[in-house]
Design goal:
The protein has seven helices and eleven strands. It has helices at residues 15-26, 58-71, 89-95, 126-135, 138-145, 149-169, 179-188; strands at 2-5, 34-37, 75-79, 98-100, 104-107, 112-116, 193-196, 203-209, 212-218, 227-232, 237-242. α1 (15-26) runs parallel beside α2. The structure holds manganese (II) ion.
């Protein structure tokens, strides 16, 4: 069995989500062979050294819980989101989680999936795409990670507030995937079943691309008392409510 989750946006401000996630890792996820995390696991990630931040044990608790799951033999893999794009090799080594490229093609004996966070397809949001290009540039990352942790945390906070207030001015279509870009993406990935998050608009969409039916599963973000995972049992994909 394979499980998929995304958009938990873990932060000390949402202790209920953390509690649900730790419960998920300790119980539901134990019966899976693989767990895929499709981005925005964390609300913010200022760099891997935040795991050992003496002022804040929040991230360490999450990393330790992931480690217990991977030590138990569950293969956990992660695609970066637009919030936690700085999750790096130290995080991977500590947690046992494998970092994947975005998009990632998951070829199984019975089916083919393509996995992504989903933000790259929100092509109508030009401001966001410019930001995405900047932060994924290796020179920008090196310069950013050279700053002290406290400064990086402050910058991440300011960016988050900016993005939250910008969201209020954005019309709905800016915050969803672009239909043409999505169709091209489905074609480029051989009409595989597409699973993504990011938009916080959970739904299962049916696309007809070049006369071929393709499913696109948009995952739900997690809230204080409610979460979601997708489960592939080898034959069918289903949504599971987590409480
Ligand atoms: Mn996102």
């Amino acid at each position: 069995m394979i499980l998929f989750i995304s958009d938990l946006h873990l932060s000390p401000q949402t202790p209920g989500v953390k509690r649900m996630f730790l419960d998920f890792l300790g119980n539901r996820a134990r019966s899976a062979e693989q767990l895929f995390i499709l981005g925005d696991l964390f609300e913010a990630w200022p760099g891997d050294d935040c795991i050992d931040d003496p002022e804040d044990g929040f991230n360490l608790a999450i990393v330790d819980a992931l480690r217990q799951l991977t030590d138990a033999g569950v293969a956990v893999a992660l695609i970066h989101g637009n919030r936690d794009f700085l999750l790096g090799e130290a995080f991977a080594a500590r947690s046992g989680v494998r970092l994947l490229p975005d998009p990632y093609v998951l070829s199984l004996p019975a089916w083919q999936f393509v996995l992504s966070h989903g933000d790259a397809l929100c092509t109508d949001d030009h401001d966001y795409q410019a930001f995405r290009t900047q932060v994924r540039n290796s020179a920008w990352r090196t310069a950013f990670l050279a700053k002290p942790l406290s400064e990086r945390k402050a910058i991440a906070n300011a960016l988050r507030q900016k993005s939250e207030s910008a969201k209020k001015d954005k019309t709905q279509y800016l915050m969803d995937v672009n239909p043409g870009a999505t169709e091209d993406f489905l074609r480029e990935h051989g009409y595989a079943t597409f699973i993504h998050g990011h938009t916080h608009q959970p739904a299962t969409h049916d696309h007809i691309v070049d006369g071929i039916h393709v499913e696109r599963w948009v995952m739900a973000d997690w809230h204080e008392a409610i979460g979601e995972c997708l489960c592939w049992d080898g034959e069918t994909l289903t949504r599971e409510l987590l409480t």
